[in-house]
Amino acid sequence: QKEVEQDPGPLSVPEGAIVSLNCTYSNSAFQYFMWYRQYSRKGPELLMYTYSSGNKEDGRFTAQVDKSSKYISLFIRDSQPSDSATYLCAMRQGGSEKLVFGKGTKLTVNP
Amino acid sequence: GAGVSQSPRYKVAKRGQDVALRCDPISGHVSLFWYQQALGQGPEFLTYFQNEAQLDKSGLPSDRFFAERPEGSVSTLKIQRTQQEDSAVYLCASSPPRRVGYEQYFGPGTRLTVT
């Protein structure tokens, strides 16, 4: 079993829909949680970075962390065609620099 | 300012050839990371430098893989005697000193195809 599990999709939604992406993890030492967006043929770019359990909002994006359930989510409101990309969750242990990524979920937002 | 740059962007190698992949991090970033991303998968950690010191190489898949950052800026990932399973996108990332932030900034990657 991988340390981080993420449903690869693909996920296809109409423009304006609310999108929910999630990851589960098995390593309770993970303390830092990130969501990256990766467009085709590009490197990942950081969308959200959270440390504690709870919600963090940035514009149309909300990241949610539930450490007790080892479950993290990313919500995208009012989705746009430009949100079409692969979304990767990533995690890091305290005292470690390396990121452990999920497999990524490919999202398509249809106009 | 300029982001992380990688060269070449695409590399085709015959099985058994040696390849060298270059990463230019963002100026002032002390930490540099290499990840390998197979098709349809998330990036997997290979190795990490803080300045010129290689502090973690636990992700290097075999002794055919070697990374260096001799002057604490540009880094090279070398793969000797390439195999078909080495075909992947190799991503480089850099991050600033801890007092500034934690984000890892990724380059566009080098897509390696071994035939």
Describe this structure in words.
The complex is a heterodimer of chains A (111) and B (115). With 111 residues, chain A is mainly β. Chain A contains no helices and eleven strands. In chain A, the strands form two sheets. In chain A, strands 2, 4, 5, 9, 10 and 11 form a six-stranded mixed sheet that branches. A five-stranded antiparallel sheet of chain A has the order 1-3-8-7-6, with no helix packed on it. The mean pLDDT of chain A is 94. Chain B has no helices and eleven strands. Chains A and B meet through strand 5 and strand 10 of A and strand 4, strand 5 and strand 10 of B.
List the topology elements.
The complex is a heterodimer of chains A (111) and B (115).
Chain A: E1 4-6, E2 11-14, E3 19-25, E4 30-38, E5 45-50, E6 54-58, E7 61-66, E8 71-76, E9 85-93, E10 100-101, E11 105-110
Chain B: E1 5-7, E2 10-13, E3 19-24, E4 31-37, E5 44-50, E6 53-56, E7 65-68, E8 75-79, E9 88-95, E10 105-106, E11 110-114
Parallel strand pairs in B: 2-11
Antiparallel strand pairs in B: 1-3, 3-8, 4-5, 4-9, 5-6, 7-8, 9-10, 9-11
